[in-house]
Amino acid sequence: MADLKLDYLFDPLCGWCYASAGALSTLAERYPDKLEMRPTGLFAGAGARRITPEFAQHARSNDLRIASLTGQPFTPAYFERILGHGSLRFDSTPMSRALTTVRNLDKTLEPRLYGKFQSARYVDGLDTSSAEVVTTLTADFLAHEHHPVSAGDLHALITGQEQVAQDTASRIEQAQALMQKVGASGVPLLLVEIDEKVHPISGMDLYGDPSRLIALIEQLQQSAA
């Protein structure tokens, strides 16, 4: 079988990345050693902002489209506490750093923590731009996965630890370089690399039935072989 590598490019606050949650979960389960998570920093740094009423209206419109297209849940708690709050930050930096921290422990845990973040935001209505919220979610997740880390240590890693910040920035730079290489401008994006040939996959191939995505990857492998 041809050599396979999977790069999943995303931002933790990207609603359309949430639309591809089923695809990512299936990829992580089927190809745990082949999958590389690639945060792009779309809503970090200069891309961060406040959730103004105008931005909230735009996000709500996209969220309703995603729900209609994929069946992904967006609860009243999310619409009221996050989009309806009026002054929250929209900043994926805390989640990106938490994901990097967990990846440094065990990269197969990263997509699962990412799924926990998505559920916390869109279902439970928790502010996942808050370092405190992200710290609590990550500490609970790691304790459940038998990698206990104190909340205090995690908060320091996420908010101020220089090495984690540098590692996260490096991952973002690598992801942006990959996007530039294939001429992509948006996420989610899956790059299927087979024997050093890259096949970009996006859109409905990521939002639909995950079994069809697996079949597409297997077809690409067979064609390469």
Task: Write up this protein.
The protein has eleven helices and six strands. With 225 residues, the chain is an alpha+beta fold. The protein has one domain: Glutaredoxin. The longest helix is centred in the C-terminal third of the chain and has 21 residues, at 162-182. It is globular, with a radius of gyration of 17 Å.
What is the structure about, briefly put?
The protein has one domain: Glutaredoxin (3-Layer(aba) Sandwich). It contains 11 helices and 6 strands.
Per-chain topology:
Layout: E1 4-10, H1 15-19, H2 21-30, E2 35-39, E3 49-50, H3 53-70, H4 76-83, E4 89-90, H5 93-105, H6 110-122, H7 131-144, H8 151-159, H9 162-182, E5 189-194, E6 197-201, H10 204-207, H11 210-224
Helix pairs in contact: 2-11, 5-6, 5-7, 5-8, 5-9, 6-7, 7-8
State mean pLDDT (0 to 100 scale). 96
Strand line-up of the largest beta sheet: 2-1-5-6
Low-confidence segments: none
Q: Helical segment tally?
A: 11
Structurally, how many domains make up the residues?
A: 1
Spatial extent as radius of gyration: 17 Å
* Estimated helix fraction: 55-70%
So what's the overall shape?
globular
Structural class: alpha+beta
What is the correct CATH architecture?
A: 3-Layer(aba) Sandwich
Describe the biggest sheet?
Answer: 4 strands, mixed
Please name the CATH topology: Glutaredoxin
